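Below is the record:
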Amino acid sequence: MKGKPWASMAPEVLPEHVLARTPELIVWWGRAQPRLMFFGDGNAEAKKLNGKMYSHPALLFMIHGRELFVRALARNSRPTADTCLKNAPYWNTDAHGRVCLGSMRVPEVVGVNSLSRWEEAYFASEFTHPSGAVRLTTHPGGFLGLWSNLAGRKHSFPVKFLADRKQTLQEFVEKRGEG
């Protein structure tokens, strides 16, 4: 097996939240939970939202190479291959789920033990701008209306406002964020 890319990957015991792992990528999910968010846009409405706690939906994360991708899940349970994904309702995330890293302090390591640090880095960074033509939410007030309504509230994230991605988990993993 000399010269094979998988030969250099250290063996890891995969926890339940890890969904897929190859030498090039790792995919995991996280339960819905409250998280602190930061907004860095010059937009006055966004500045009012900065540094507050918000309810978030269950999320799906993927690292491919050194790129981070994020999708949302309508259910707060471990997804299966045929689970339909939703757009992540966040600025800095394009139609493919690719995150513009901007101010994010990316962990040096990509592995099972660093996944929580990738999530923490994502939410410790500033959400500054829409990334291309992607519908982030179906909320009647759009992106800022959604987060304005959630600011400091204790209720769970309203998944009815997640925009459908028309992609399954299997498709997302196979396309590695390119479709």
In short: The chain has one domain: 15-175.
